[in-house]
Amino acid sequence: MADRTIKILTKATETDLLTLDEAKLWLGIPVTDVSQDALLTSMISMFSEEIAERLNRHPTVTIGQEEVLETWRETMNGRLFLSHWPVKESDIISVTVGDVEVTPFVDLSVGDYELEEASGKVSNITIGGAQAVPWNHPVVVHYKGGYMLPDECPLPLKHAIVMLIREEKIRMMQAQTAGIRQISHREARVSFFDPNAVLLRSVGMQSPTMKAVESILTHYMRFEV
Question: Looking at the structure, do residues 154 and 54 belong to the same domain, yes or no?
Fold first, then answer.
């Protein structure tokens, strides 16, 4: 495993994965209904951070774009996977190996490294472009990486936020009637489903919503070894 030091130079200006209007649209709430705005805004921020945490986005818990200075040592091979991705070629400010600033690989004969934008992989490429070769140490990459939120956030991640909000709202509604089994008035009786009984039987089990969310997140997660 490589030795990597990450310094955040400019933190993300936006960390929410979707807008309030998007959440309202997908939850079936009219945009003109502002009665739940404060709650929804708080939930969007909370679940956006939770998803970034589950995606192992560190040292800051966001997938939003940040300016980063990243130093690599003991890389063992010619590939660096930057901590903040995706990374556009235009957002690589500099790559320095030792005291020498190297240049991007732009064609078959010119350049020292090649960037895979979607994954944030930087490869040390030989002149012929045929193979990645080990880096000299240290390698310092100055760049901007991550999504410009909320517009660039992938739709599946937005969907995950909506699913979590919907489930939390259901839990809140259930809590209001928790412990009430039946209401009687004269001959009329209304029986309530007790959500606590189900919760007690399912301690330690994931909800179907969380299972669906984690299935989505695996496609945006990097497992580092």
Answer: yes
Q: Which of 116, 145, 174 is the last residue of a domain?
A: 145
State the residue range of the domain holding 113. 66-145
Co-location of 73 and 94 in the same domain: yes
d(C-alpha 105, C-alpha 86), whole Å = 18
Give the single-character DSSP code of 218: G
Tens-level pLDDT at each residue, the chain (225 residues): 678 999 999 999 999 999 999 999 999 999 999 999 999 999 999 999 999 999 999 889 999 999 999 999 877 778 899 999 999 999 999 999 888 898 888 766 677 889 999 999 998 886 444 555 677 778 999 999 999 999 999 999 999 999 999 998 888 776 665 555 556 666 676 665 555 555 445 545 668 888 899 999 999 998 776
Is residue 57 classed as helix, strand or coil in its secondary structure? coil
Of 145, 177, 199, the residue that ends a domain is 145
Domain co-membership, 57 together with 158: yes
User: Which residues, other chains included, contact 180 with Cβ-Cβ below 8 Å and sequence gap of 6+?
Assistant: 192
The whole-angstrom separation of Cα 149 and Cα 164 is 19
Contact call for residues 136 and 144 (beta carbons, < 8 A):
no
Q: State whether 40 and 92 are in the same domain.
A: no
| Same domain, yes or no: 160 and 205 | yes
Output the pTM of the full model: 0.80
Cβ-based neighbours of 15, under 8 Å, separated by 6 or more? 45, 48, 49, 52, 62, 64, 149
